[in-house]
C-alpha cells in the first residue's frame, strides 16, 4: 500500500537541486553503521554539526558526503537547521572513522551507482584532507554557542540503511 502524501513529498523533493557537500547526522547509542548500506527511509541531516548532534550529545555521528541530498533549508520553518534530506534507495559506504573529542564519527560517502549524479565539487581531493575537513568543521562548530534543540530527534537517531541485496 502506498502513501500518496509521502509520494507527493518525495516527488517535490526530487525537483530540488542536489546538494553536493558535507552534512552531519547524529546517531543514538548502539546504532550500527554497515560498511555499505542502502537507505530504507527518508533521512534528514544538517550542515550544522551542533544541530545534527543535538549540541554534541549524540552517542556518535555520521559525516556524510552528499551527492544527491536535497537542501530543504529555504523551504523550512527552521532554515537555521540547515536541513538536507536523503531519499530511500541512496547508497552509502564508510570510508573512514575518526574519534573527535570522544565522539566516534563515521565518514560516509554517497555512492553514485547510476553514473548520473552530478560530480561533487566541494569534496577534498584526498581521504586525509577529507578527514581533516571533517575534524576542522566539527571543532569549529564546537567553539560556537550551542544551537539549541529545536526539533528533538529529527537529525539524531538511527541509520535506516541495510546491506545491499546480494551483498
| Parts with pLDDT < 50 across at least 5 consecutive residues | none
Major pleated sheet: 7 strands, mixed
Strand sequence of the main sheet, in spatial order?
Answer: 10-2-5-9-8-3-11
CATH class: Alpha Beta
- Overall morphology: globular
Overall helicity: 10-25%
- Please, what is the average pLDDT? 89
The amount of beta strand, in percent, is 25-35%
Spell the H/E element sequence: HEEEEHEEEEEHEE
Estimated structural class: alpha+beta
Distance between the termini: 27 Å
- Looking at the structure, the CATH topology is Toxin ADP-ribosyltransferase, Chain A, domain 1
Number of domains: 1
Keywords summarizing the entry:
single chain, Toxin ADP-ribosyltransferase, Chain A, domain 1, 11 strands, alpha+beta, four-stranded antiparallel sheet, 167 residues
Amino acid at each position: 500500500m502506498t502513501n500518496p502524501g509521502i509520494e507527493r513529498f518525495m516527488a517535490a523533493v526530487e525537483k530540488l537541486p542536489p546538494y553536493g557537500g558535507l552534512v552531519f547526522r547524529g546517531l543514538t547509542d548502539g546504532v550500527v553503521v554497515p560498511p555499505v548500506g542502502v537507505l530504507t527511509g527518508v533521512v534528514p541531516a544538517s550542515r550544522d554539526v551542533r544541530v545534527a548532534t543535538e549540541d554534541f550529545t549524540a552517542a556518535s555521528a555520521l559525516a556524510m558526503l552528499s551527492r544527491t541530498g536535497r537542501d530543504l533549508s529555504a523551504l523550512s520553518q527552521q532554515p537555521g537547521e540547515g536541513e538536507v534530506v536523503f531519499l530511500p534507495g541512496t547508497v552509502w559506504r564508510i570510508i573512514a572513522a575518526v574519534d573527535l573529542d570522544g565522539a566516534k564519527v563515521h565518514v560516509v560517502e554517497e555512492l553514485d551507482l547510476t553514473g548520473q549524479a552530478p560530480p561533487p565539487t566541494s569534496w577534498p581531493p584526498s581521504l586525509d584532507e577529507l578527514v581533516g575537513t571533517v575534524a576542522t568543521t566539527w571543532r569549529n562548530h564546537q567553539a560556537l554557542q550551542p544551537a539549541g534543540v529545536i526539533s528533538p530527534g529529527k537529525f539524531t537517531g538511527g541509520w535506516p540503511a541495510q546491506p545491499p541485496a546480494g551483498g
